[in-house]
Design a protein that fits this description.
This protein has about 525 residues and is mostly helical. The chain contains 19 helices and six strands. The chain is globular, with a radius of gyration of 22 Å.
Length: about 525
């Protein structure tokens, strides 16, 4: 078993009630007989409830893989956070295409999504649900309520840390909302039940400022780096998210400013100086026992083939990237789903895509050109994620259905890249020199310890390409392309961008996804994003 918190996933209590698909009903009280007074009467009850806050990132309901979903109105097999987030961040870019014809899934690469897209509606509702679960835990874990329930000493202190972790996880989901939807509904732990439909964040800038203030405050409330259980939040996670939002501040705040680049450098360096760095073997970062990579993994969505059974997450990523004559057994699973591949743009980022030199190049060579998106052998398969341990054995699920591999939310490698980009955009000469060192550290690791991968100079475009080589399929590509003005712009094309084989420029309003029409219809306080 991976750790104590993951063990609790199998016996979690649902403390926030089941959500319907609109924010109008977000604050309804639970309809079952397990009340908050029962759930939170003991320290173990608090630990179980905290596991639900974490587990909402990796699970789709309380039974798994289907039967008692968190969110109604969506196929539970597709309702996992990682699967929904991954589609929105990767299928809309040069890094991924999918051969399936599920309703709405082709809209991502075609860039013709609407406010009725079921995948976007699912992601939006999953985000809101996870915010609501975190809010509920925060309401019930105030010092006053904990004391009133007779919990004190070390147990009360641990609950206060769990409350801070829930607060971080809420801030993370609001980052998802800010990045993808700009102005999601404003739902906080201080809201009263029955107070009516939530209002919308008044601006993306206001949400940015709120997330920033939450993360700054959490620095003193979270456990110190590397002192928490594996898979739980510590101070380094807050610093990593600050680094990420500061790097994208010009997009989120809708203004041209260099003021935030020194902050990117500051918080990226705080993570690195806290002891986070690069593991020796890049490929081991994405295996079934990647929870062992404690030097590099800052925070991941935890998956376990026996405890987190659902058809999303890395179960989706591994199975869906296998097809045709690829060996499923080599990936530690029982079969492929003939789904996701990549475009030639990612493949051609590598001078040698065989993986013999740059170990980050992990492909199964199909047809490089994509003439038919529905044909799995059109487009190279990506073999980065596997349900195989570093000793060669398969994951824990004997059936081969469900995958153990954790999905990284933050790695130290991202901090190296964030630092380097910020240094190029607004750093001192000394910081730019350090940026080159960090980039070459990544490249020496990628080249299996050889100096052959080292470069003498770096540019902004080189950084974007390096992010593709290092971080592909980790849910960051759409955000990166928007920051570099290459997501909708006609200066950078990829196969089938905008639904045509050669690619085409698309309208800039697509840089933000629409608020789902189901929520707009249910909540009169919401306004649609421009262009939809």
């Amino acid at each position: 078993m991976k750790n104590n918190m993951l063990k609790i996933f199998g016996s979690m209590l649902l403390v926030a009630g089941t959500l319907v698909s609109c924010t109008k009903d977000l604050d309804r009280t639970p309809t079952n007989d397990v009340t908050s007074e029962v759930v939170y009467s003991t320290f173990s009850g608090y630990k179980q409830a905290a596991a639900k806050v974490y587990g909402a990132f990796a699970l789709t309901g309380n039974d798994g893989p289907a039967g008692n979903p968190d969110i109604l109105g969506l196929d539970e097999g597709t309702a996992d956070f990682t699967r929904l987030f991954w589609k929105a961040q990767e299928l809309s870019t040069d890094e991924a295409v999918v051969g399936w014809n599920d309703e709405g899934i082709r809209d991502f690469h075609n860039m013709n999504w609407t406010a009725n897209n079921p995948m976007l509606t699912g992601l939006y509702n999953r985000m809101v649900y996870q915010i609501t679960v975190a809010n509920e835990f925060m309401r019930e874990s105030t010092p006053e309520k904990v004391a009133a329930r007779g919990i004190s000493g070390a147990d009360a202190e641990e609950i206060s840390k769990l409350r801070a972790e829930a607060r971080f996880l809420r801030a993370f989901q609001y980052w998802v909302g800010m990045d993808l939807f700009a102005r999601p509904p404003k739902i906080l732990d201080t809201d009263q039940f029955g107070a009516g439909a939530p209002v919308q964040w008044e601006s993306r800038v206001a949400l940015f400022d709120w997330i920033e203030s939450e993360l700054i405050a959490l620095q003193s409330e979270l456990k110190a780096p590397k002192t928490n259980e594996t898979g739980r939040v510590d101070q380094a996670a807050a610093w990593a998210l600050l680094s990420r939002i500061y790097l994208n501040a010009e997009i989120y705040r809708e203004e041209t400013t260099t003021a935030y680049y020194p902050k990117v450098i500051e918080f990226s360096k705080k993570v690195i100086d806290a002891g986070y760095g690069l593991e020796d073997n890049y490929r081991q970062l994405f295996l079934a026992d990647n929870h062992l990579n404690v030097k590099e993994n800052i925070l991941s969505v935890r998956y376990d083939g026996n405890q987190t059974k659902n058809y999303g997450g890395t179960t989706f990523i591994v199975h869906a990237s296998i097809g045709d004559n690829m060996s499923a057994a080599a990936f530690g699973v029982n079969g492929g789903w003939f789904g996701i591949r990549t475009t030639k743009n990612l493949v051609e980022l590598f001078e040698d895509n065989s993986g013999e030199t740059d170990r980050r190049a992990q492909f199964f060579a199909n047809n490089l050109e994509i003439n038919d998106i529905s044909k799995f052998t059109d487009g190279y398969a990506v073999t980065k994620f596997k349900n195989v341990k570093r000793d060669g054995s398969a994951g824990s699920d004997a059936t081969g259905d469900f995958v153990d591999t954790d999905f990284p939310l933050f790695r130290a490698a991202e901090m190296y890249l964030n630092y380097a980009e910020a240094a190029l955009r607004g750093g001192t000469p000394a910081e730019q020199a350090q940026a080159l060192i960090y980039i070459n550290d990544l490249r020496v690791r990628a080249y299996n310890g050889s100096d052959d991968g080292k470069v003498a100079t770096i540019t902004r475009d080189f950084i974007l390409d390096e992010r593709g080589r290092e971080l592909h399929w980790e849910g960051l590509r759409r955000t990166d392309l928007i920051r570099f003005n290459k997501f909708t712009d006609g200066s950078y094309l990829w196969p089938w961008k905008g639904g045509v084989k050669e690619g085409r420029a698309m309208p800039d309003h697509l840089r933000i996804y629409p608020i789902p029409v189901s929520d707009l219809s249910a909540n009169p306080n919401l306004e649609q994003n421009t262009g939809y």
